[in-house]
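S2.1 Query sequence (Restriction endonuclease)
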Amino acid sequence: MKVINDKLALLANIPNHYLVRASGSSHPYFEGFMSTAESIQSILTEKEFEYWCTEKMLLKQKPFAEKKFIQYAVETTVAKYFGTKFPEGFRVEAKVNPENYKDVDCQFIDNGFVYNVEVKCSDFKSKEKIDSQDAFKFVTEGRLPDKGQKVINTITDALIESLTKKGEEIKPFLVSKNMDNNLKEFLELAHEKFNPNPSETEINILLVGCDDVYDIQNWVNYLYAHEGLFTKDSFADRRCYQNVDLVVFTNQYFKHNKVLEKNVAASWTLDDGFNIVMVNPNRLLKKTEGIRHFLDILPNYNTELGKYEVPGIAGPSVKDSVRISHFVKEYLEEKLGRYVFEAKP
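Output structure tokens follow.
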């Protein structure tokens, strides 16, 4: 695509740009991008496409903003998927709430149903800062009265005593970043963008780009663990996101972040990734048929995950807290030989 190559030719002075690097090394990521660019051009106006190139794919003379690029790459993947499958009536930046000027990332129509999709990614900066350190890391499931500090202190004291007796190094003790507030914010922002007076045929979707399999498990726990956002004891006011009918968790952040250092295939599609769909139990309307139809439209692992049994004798709540990570590693990878994150080692 000449317009893309011409823009990239002017960015040789920005060597850390993902697309500059991928183009220079003939990486499959660039081939996928070029195919995506052709698809995006076909569903956008000329003005929209130029804006997409310059402001979303960052093909301009400015320092490369990695996290911003990833957010827009995930948005692009979503728009390409739905826009090419359902081009008639497809819109980007669609205003669907008559009470304000906010817009959703895309809207498509199929089988008499209107689907509004808002796409969000965390920048993961705080989490990645902790994860990158050589330390003992604690992860809490759900919200605990003292943030788990009593248990953390007990385990810390026991580890220090054990390591001291063995004469081994005592590493720092850190608490991994809990991102349930990020999800709360995503839900509330999406709620404001959707029509507060919807019909049964208008389905509102928040799609969240997540990182690796353990991260997706964490995001699910933010919904269903103790005081989770989809539970009756939610730490947030559930009325503030009842316009959201569905939450989709996908590994799209993983498939774009640091992609040139990974063995990842098919970054620019929702077809070959890991997608799961969660239904908001406190949504304004049931919208049963529209939700069922969406589950047929978007490739997802809901059915297989629902049937999967985590091995071992642990209780149901413990098994649910690790269900996704076990499902991917034991069932998809080991049993089926299906690798939806990185290719087989």
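The chain has a mean pLDDT of 91. The chain has 14 helices and eight strands.
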